[in-house]
Fold this protein.
Amino acid sequence: MTSPPDLNSPPAASGDGPRAVHAVLLGGVGDAARLLGPLARALDGSGPAILPVDAGLPAPRISQLLDAFRPEAVIGADGEARARSGSRGVAAETAVIVGTSGSTGEPKGVELSAGALSHSARASLARAEARDGERWLLCLPASHVAGLQVLVRSLAGGTEPAIAAEASARALDEAADGGCAHVSVVPTQLVRLLGAEGGARALARYRSVLVGGAAAGAAALDEARAAGIAVRTTYGMSETCGGCVYDGVPLDGVTVRADDEGRLRISGPLLMSRYYGRPDLTGAALVDGEFVTSDLGRVEADGRVVVRGRADDVINTGGHKVVPGEVAAVLSACPGVREVVVVGRPDAEWGERVTAVVVPADPGDPPGLELLRTHVRARLPRYACPSEVVLTEAIPVLPSGKPDLAALRVARA
């Protein structure tokens, strides 16, 4: 087991110059153990900052991430660090860069300090009432903040996480037999486990089941609680080190308020430091010590946070964020497509499903769903592929000439 860093102390000084960044290519959830050592050293300051990257992404996307965040070295599956030119480093306090997509599909690098990550981990452990020696099960990609935080919590608690390539009843049972008492899942995983033989029983063995990454359906949550599963809904994003509101209640040290526009603003010691190389985006997102979210909501008189929904059109599908414009740009070059708009439609399992509304170039020979999916899969992550196609003679528009997204979201397939 990797020696846990002292998350109660500030990181060691890393010199007068900028801190180096190493990208770690991870081959799926099952490869997350390779991140533990570099993460521990990043947190205690004895090693470079890290940039976890999903090695399963299309090669052009990986190149885009590396070009955007300029790591000094890339650590492959063999554990070797291969030097890369053009690095400029990060601030000394930055421990991790988490890559996310902006509204235009351009990657944004969320810089998280060791202090922010450790505060989030300690507050999460306290809220989950984790006991000494209780382990966490990781079944989420460590290249995303939710999976990453399972590793940080394990390091903070001095335990070794169990890692499962998929969230199956068998994997949960085996991890529980090995001392795991806590697990994080996205709503899709929860729904599938509830419908699988032995899934609900396996989940009920855990003292806390954190459900986040997207809004969980009320029916699934009710079914889980009726089965004796200790589900806790979480709300947060990469910029807040993951979930910072549990069951509507902010973690210790976190304050959430709604501004005059109804947009939620978050403050506290677990906020990101900045967006890598983007002072413009940082200035718009961090205002007077608060992170201005893209979500609309309210705070009840008892302090409970109610999230109404996103203020923009980003699609949350199975815990992943999909930028509709990015998918539409790819589909617009697909043979047989004349016009296309991508929207999210409600889905009981995925939260939202990616829907492509297409005006075919030849109405007599329109492009099929599998062709569209194949076209997207070669350029974007698999979760960005449309799961539904709606054929139409014309895209409905607003008086401004922009597509009427509200109408498209209720269009019938």
Residues 7-16 have pLDDT under 50 and may be disordered. The CA atoms of residues 3 and 326 lie 41 Å apart.
